[in-house]
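Supplementary Methods. Inverse-folding protocol.

Structures were first reduced to a C-alpha cell string of length 412. This string, shown here, constituted the complete conditioning input.
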C-alpha cells in the first residue's frame, strides 16, 4: 500500500462521510418550517427523521455482510446513488406522508456508508496512522453536519424556503457521487474487496447467520460499544437537531443567528475530531473517550440552565460538541476488538447503536420538548453524558489493555 493510495482512500471515504452526514441532518435546521408547511408538530417531523434512522438500523448487518464477503466499493456505490435519490425526493415531497417515504428511501442510501467506510479505512491505513485516519473520516462527518445549517442560514437571508436547503444538499451530494464512483472503481482489489482467505467457504444459510449473530451478541466489549454508541448518538442528535430551538426559546435568539451559531458549533467539533485522532494515537482511545464524555455532561448541563450570558453562550456553545473528540477513540476501540474478516459486520453492530440513536432521539426529544421544554431536553443530554462516562469506565475493565494504549493487538 503506497502512501498516495492511502491518502486517496482516506480522502474519498472522508468526502463520502461529508455527504452522508449532510443527508442525515438535512431536515434539522428547517424542522420548524417543514412542520408549519405540512401542518404537523415538531415531533412529527422528528418522527420522519426517526424513520430514516430506523431504516439505517435495519440495513446495517445486511450491508456489513456484503462488505465483508463481496465488495466494499459496491456497497459504497449503492449508498451514494440511493442517498442522492432519497434526498432529492425529500426536497420534492408534496405532503407529510411523502416526506416519510422519502426519508425511508434516504435511509437506504445512508445505511451502507459505515459498513463500507470502516473496512476501507482499516485496510488502507497503517496501524500507526489508524486513529488519524478515523479522525479524518469523523472530521468529514462533522463538516457534513455543519453544511445544512450553513445553507439554511444563507437561504434564510435570501428569503428562500426550506426546499432550497434540501435541494442544494442534494446537488452537492449528487455531484460528489459523480466524481467519487469512478475513483472508487480504480481502488486495487486488496482494498475494494475482502481477501479470499476472509471470505466464507460455504454458502450463506439461515443457520450460519444465526450462529454469526450469536457470536456478535456474546462479545461483551462489542455489545458495550454498541450501547455506548446508542447513548452518545442520542445525545449528539439532540444537540444537532434542537440547538436552534434551545437558542431561540431558551435564549431568545433569532432563527438565522441560531443557525449560524450551530454551524459554528459543528465546525468547531470538526476541529476537535482531529485533536481526538491525534490523542488516540498518542495516549490511547480509552483515555480520550473518558475526557470527551465528561466534557459533554458538563457543557450540556450549562446550556440547559438557559441563563448563560450571551457572550458566555457564544463561547460555550461551540464546545458543546466535545463529544466529537471521542469519536476516533470509539472507532479505534471497535477496530481493536475486531478480526480483519469481521470489520464490516462489527462496525455495522456499532453503527446499529448509532442509528438507533438517530431513530429514537429526534422523535423522543421532540416530544419531550413539546411537553416539558427544550431546557429539560438538554438536561437529559447531560445525564446521557454521565451514563456514557460510566459505561466507558466499565468497558475499559472488560477489554484488553490495548483499549488504553496505542499498541497493536493480534488482530492487526
Amino acid at each position: 500500500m503506497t502512501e498516495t493510495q492511502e491518502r486517496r482512500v482516506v480522502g474519498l471515504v472522508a468526502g463520502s462521510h461529508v455527504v452522508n452526514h449532510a443527508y442525515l441532518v438535512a431536515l434539522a435546521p428547517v424542522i420548524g418550517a417543514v412542520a408549519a408547511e405540512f401542518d404537523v408538530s415538531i415531533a412529527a417531523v422528528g418522527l420522519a427523521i426517526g424513520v430514516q434512522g430506523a431504516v439505517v438500523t435495519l440495513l446495517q448487518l445486511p450491508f456489513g455482510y456484503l462488505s465483508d464477503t463481496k465488495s466494499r466499493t459496491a456497497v459504497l456505490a449503492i449508498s451514494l446513488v440511493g442517498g442522492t435519490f432519497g434526498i432529492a425526493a425529500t426536497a420534492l415531497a408534496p405532503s407529510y406522508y411523502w416526506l416519510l417515504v422519502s426519508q425511508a428511501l434516504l435511509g437506504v442510501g445512508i445505511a451502507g456508508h459505515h459498513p463500507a467506510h470502516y473496512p476501507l479505512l482499516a485496510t488502507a491505513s497503517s496501524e500507526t496512522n489508524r486513529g488519524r485516519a478515523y479522525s479524518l473520516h469523523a472530521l468529514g462527518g462533522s463538516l457534513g453536519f455543519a453544511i445544512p445549517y450553513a445553507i439554511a442560514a444563507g437561504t434564510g437571508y435570501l428569503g428562500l424556503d426550506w426546499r432550497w436547503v434540501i435541494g442544494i444538499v442534494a446537488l452537492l451530494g449528487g455531484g460528489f457521487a459523480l466524481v467519487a464512483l469512478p475513483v472508487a472503481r480504480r481502488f486495487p482489489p486488496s482494498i475494494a474487496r475482502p481477501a479470499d482467505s476472509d471470505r466464507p467457504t460455504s454458502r450463506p444459510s439461515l443457520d450460519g447467520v444465526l450462529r454469526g449473530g450469536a457470536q456478535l451478541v456474546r462479545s461483551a466489549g462489542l455489545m458495550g460499544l454498541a450501547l455506548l454508541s446508542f447513548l452518545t448518538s442520542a445525545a449528539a442528535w439532540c444537540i444537532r437537531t434542537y440547538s436552534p430551538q434551545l437558542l431561540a426559546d431558551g435564549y431568545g435568539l433569532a432563527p438565522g443567528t441560531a443557525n449560524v451559531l450551530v454551524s459554528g458549533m459543528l465546525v468547531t467539533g470538526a476541529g476537535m475530531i482531529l485533536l481526538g485522532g491525534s490523542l488516540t494515537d498518542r495516549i490511547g482511545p480509552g483515555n480520550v473517550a473518558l475526557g470527551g464524555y465528561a466534557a459533554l455532561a458538563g457543557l450540556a448541563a450549562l446550556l440547559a440552565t438557559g441563563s448563560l450570558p450571551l457572550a458566555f453562550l457564544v463561547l460555550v456553545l461551540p464546545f458543546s460538541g466535545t463529544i466529537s473528540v471521542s469519536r476516533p477513540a470509539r472507532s479505534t476501540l471497535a477496530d481493536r476488538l475486531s478480526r480483519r474478516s469481521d470489520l464490516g459486520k462489527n462496525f455495522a453492530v456499532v453503527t446499529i447503536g448509532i442509528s438507533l440513536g438517530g431513530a429514537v432521539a429526534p422523535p423522543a426529544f421532540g416530544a419531550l420538548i413539546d411537553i416539558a421544554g427544550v431546557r429539560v431536553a438538554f438536561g437529559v443530554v447531560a445525564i446521557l453524558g454521565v451514563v456514557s462516562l460510566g459505561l466507558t469506565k466499565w468497558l475499559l475493565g472488560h477489554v484488553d489493555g490495548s483499549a488504553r494504549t496505542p499498541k497493536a493487538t493480534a488482530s492487526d
